[in-house]
Specification:
The protein is α+β, with helices and mostly antiparallel strands. It has one domain. Helix content is about 40%, strand content about 25%. The strands form 2 sheets. Strands 1-2-3-4 form a 4-stranded antiparallel beta sheet. Strands 5-6 form a two-stranded antiparallel sheet.
Length: about 120
């Protein structure tokens, strides 16, 4: 934990920034869930959030899929066009909370940092 700045976590995953990183990646956020780690810019996180919401809004599942954790019938496009995640409803909600919570915390930190700097 000494090498990271935690941003947000839930029961599904964690988001953080590396303390020591390449200069080009210093502003990127590491999102880790399931067996996956994504290093994303704020813009890519925002796009991922939109992709998640699109998946929620444009997929209707049967009752069996909604209540079945092994049914991975939902596909979320990642910010990288070559990668799509197959998830169930529980995972979709966990990823959405992780991404939106991370964006909220980043925006809050930015806002509070701006207030402190203006004094």
């Amino acid at each position: 934990m000494q090498d990271i700045h935690p941003i947000y976590h839930n029961s599904f995953g964690v988001a953080f920034q590396w303390k020591r990183n390449k200069v080009k990646d210093i502003m990127k956020v590491q999102i880790v869930f399931r067996d996956t780690g994504l290093l994303l810019s704020k813009e890519e996180l925002t796009q991922f959030s939109k992709n998640i919401q699109y998946t929620k809004d444009n997929n209707s599942l049967c009752k069996d899929c909604v209540n079945n954790d092994s049914c991975k019938a939902l596909l979320i496009d990642s910010p990288a066009p070559q990668i799509t995640f197959a998830v169930n409803v529980k995972e979709l909600n966990g990823i959405q909370d992780l991404v939106e919570g991370t964006l909220f915390q980043m925006n809050l930190d930015n806002y509070l940092g701006g207030i402190c700097k203006s004094d």
